[in-house]
Write a structure and sequence with these properties.
Radius of gyration of chain B: 20 Å
Distance between the termini of chain B: 50 Å
Shape of chain B: globular
Shape of chain A: globular
Helix content of chain B: 25-40%
CATH class of the largest domain in chain B: Alpha Beta
Order of helices and strands of chain B: EHEHEHEHHEHEHEEEEHEEHEHEHH
Structural class of chain B: alpha/beta
Helix content of chain A: 40-55%
CATH superfamily of the largest domain in chain B: Thiamin diphosphate (ThDP)-binding fold, Pyr/PP domains
Number of strands of chain A: 8
CATH topology of the largest domain in chain B: Rossmann fold
Largest sheet of chain B: 7 strands, mixed
Number of domains of chain B: 2
Number of strands of chain B: 14
Oligomer: heterodimer
Number of helices of chain B: 12
Order of helices and strands of chain A: HHEHHEHEHEEEHEHEHHH
Strand order of the largest sheet of chain B: 3-2-4-5-7-6-12
Chain lengths: 327, 330
């Protein structure tokens, strides 16, 4: 990433807030799973938070995202309300989806969280459709499709990139390359060293960026989102990162390179960003500690509220399967 | 203006249903392989003239990328449009099943009603043209087995017009099944912007001895068979389901309660087909009223064959239906 333009203080702090909130939210998710108060299937995005933080500060409220089962950080950075998010994690009637979708299908259109899919690669073709609507209606809106490195090997990725390119759709494809697809190393499953190189096959720019570097990631995000918004078409961003807690939380990650993992965790991008902000005098230690404590309190309140909320009524089985009668 | 005596083909009826709907609502867009005019308006010419009339932003020929086509339709529908996507052949929907089954069908439920997918997916099929095993399957049962989508087909040009209009303006994803052989079929022109409600069957011929439940081109077959039986003093009641799923249980049960006999007639493979579900429900609900076991006409469990004699043996016929009716009357 050649562009090292440092955004202003307000944007830097906004990026830190988003990534710190996602990190704290994840820490609490793992805590309530481990202590047994909220057993759920959970795909921790811990370690990948800088990517959606940098994307989201470049998006408007009316822009949208389509994400995947490991997408909590994407939605927290986009602004999904925590109480509703946790209500959904708990399967309660207060959840975003009334408890009917769960952790793998969180949806909240009010904040632009249009889709969470549990199917690898399926966020991309649907993001194209949202972008197609924005284009036809000339709304100057952008849709971001998030996905992992393994999704670049499924057909939907290739079909979606091709279609987005020929139609110059206002979409940004953000690959969070966390080095593993389920249990298989990226190199073993992928024919190219850089997924961003695949962009050239579809006639669009490909940006390879350190997704754990807030400044580089910010510039990559801005370039791609501006391009989409200006009607110049899609971009593929490959943001290099690492997932700290395996494929599904609780797996023994015996398939992981131990040294790679411990090195990545020791190099946690969020404490690094935090230290840099203090060192560069963008924020004081105290102000960030206060912020983090406030986030932790908010998350814990959201969890408490979710745990005490009512379950959905059983008649929900028949509701939302089809539309209520229109005529 | 068309008079009631005007005859049009099914292709013309579907084309006008699309054009008339697009005239009313800007949010209706068409996506599919070859659907725009430079590509000749689709392999069967169903969308001919529409890109010229409504512009190439709203009518787009796509790459051969069924996942991307249906995905684009889903996303645009979620954003408030009413896309109509064409999957050239029903068998090609197999490569888009993730988009149809995991996404279009389920997003309303999984989002707790926050998002919806008012998408129509048109797809054509039909054995009888020697197109063999990958271009002529009847896969309606696959879709009917998935909650969250409606499955619709028609028995005449006017029915095609009215049912397609309803699909387009419906807030759920609809699979609209077309038939290659029946594309050239002529019939009375529909009234402009007329809609036929989804989920309601149509009793196309009243009778008191045997109920025949069918849909699509099989309605015509059943009517021809009914004429034959009528000459013998046996009156068939022919019920056109129109919407295969969710099916109109009330109309079917009411009819079979009166006649006491039911034969279900479809071109799809008989085993695990739509007829199996209808038979199961009818036998459970009307056990005491049935005077004969429910019988079914359907294709054998075999891929659609190529060779003409094999294909003819595979396809259901008037004789098959007649035979099952005679067995029901025994």
């Amino acid at each position: 990433m050649a562009n090292r333009d440092i955004p202003n203080q307000e944007i830097l702090l906004e990026m830190y807030k988003k990534s710190a909130l996602a990190k704290i939210n994840d820490e609490n998710a793992r805590r309530v799973i481990m202590n047994g108060s909220l057993p759920m299937i959970y795909y921790s995005p811990r370690g990948q938070e800088i990517i959606p933080a940098a994307i989201s500060v470049n998006l408007n409220d009316t822009d949208s995202i389509c994400t995947i089962y490991r997408g909590m950080h994407d939605m927290v950075c986009k602004g999904i309300p925590l109480e509703k998010l946790w209500g959904e994690y708990a399967g309660k009637s207060t959840g975003t989806c009334k408890g009917k979708g769960g952790p793998m299908h969180i949806t909240h259109p009010e904040t632009g969280c249009m889709l969470t899919t549990g199917i690898v690669g399926s966020s991309l073709p649907i993001a194209n459709g949202l972008a197609l609507s924005y284009q036809i209606k000339n709304e100057k809106k952008v849709c971001v499709a998030y996905f992992g490195d393994a999704a670049s090997n499924i057909g939907a990725f290739h079909e979606a990139l091709n279609m987005a390119s020929i139609w110059k759709l206002p979409v940004v494809f953000v690959c969070q390359n966390n080095r593993y697809g389920e249990h298989t190393k990226f190199e073993k499953a992928t024919s190219v060293a850089k997924i961003s190189d695949r962009a050239s096959a579809y006639g669009m720019p490909g940006i390879h960026v350190d997704g754990n570097d807030p400044i580089a990631m910010y510039n990559a995000a801005k370039t791609a989102i501006d391009r989409a918004r200006n009607g110049e078409g899609p971009t593929l961003i490959e943001a290099m990162t690492f997932r700290f807690y395996g494929h599904v939380f609780g797996d023994q990650d015996g398939y992981m390179d131990k040294e790679e993992k411990s090195k990545a965790m020791a190099d946690d991008p969020i404490p690094r960003f935090r230290a840099w902000l203090i060192e560069q005098a963008y924020a004081s230690e105290k102000s960030l500690t206060d912020l983090e404590e406030g986030f932790d309190k908010q998350v814990k309140e959201a969890i408490a509220s979710a745990l005490s909320a009512p379950w959905p009524e059983l008649d929900e089985l028949d509701i939302d399967v089809l539309a209520a009668a229109q005529h | 203006m068309e008079s009631l005596n005007t005859q049009i083909t099914t292709v013309e009826a579907i084309n006008s249903a699309l054009a008339d709907a697009m005239t009313i609502e800007d949010g209706i867009i068409l996506l599919g392989e070859d659907v725009a005019d430079p590509e000749e308006g689709g392999v069967a010419g169903v969308t001919r003239g529409l890109s010229t009339r409504f512009g190439d932003s709203r009518v787009r020929s796509t790459p051969i990328s069924e996942q991307a086509i249906v995905g684009a339709g889903i996303g645009a529908a979620m954003a408030g449009m009413r896309p109509v996507v064409e999957i050239m052949m029903m068998n090609f929907a197999t490569v888009a099943m993730d988009m149809i089954v995991n996404h279009a069908a389920k997003l309303r439920f999984m989002s707790g009603g926050q998002t919806q997918v008012p998408l129509t997916i048109r797809m054509a099929t039909g054995a009888g043209l020697s197109t063999a095993g990958q271009h002529a399957d009847y896969l309606e049962a696959w879709f009917a087995h998935t909650a969250g989508i409606k499955v619709v087909t028609y028995s005449s040009p006017a029915e095609a017009y009215g049912l397609l209009q309803s699909c387009i303006f419906d807030n759920d994803p609809c699979i609209f099944i077309e038939n290659f052989i029946a594309y050239a079929q002529k019939g009375a022109a529909p009234e402009k912007n007329s809609r036929i409600p989804l989920g309601k069957a149509n009793i196309v011929r009243a009778g008191k001895h045997v109920t025949v439940v069918c849909y699509g081109p099989q309605v015509g077959v059943a009517l021809a068979v009914a004429e034959k039986f009528s000459a013998e003093g046996i009156e068939l009641e022919v019920v056109d389901l129109r919407t295969i799923s969710p099916w109109d249980k009330a109309t079917v049960l009411e009819s079979v309660k009166r006649t006491g006999r039911l034969v279900i007639n479809h071109e799809a493979v008989k085993a695990f087909g739509v007829g199996a579900e209808i038979a199961a429900v009818v036998q459970q609900e009307l056990w005491g009223d049935l005077v004969a076991p429910v019988r079914r006409v359907g294709a054998p469990s075999c891929p659609v064959p190529y060779s003409r004699p094999l294909e003819l043996a595979f396809m259901t016929s008037e004789a098959d239906l007649e035979n099952e009716i005679r067995l029901a009357l025994k």
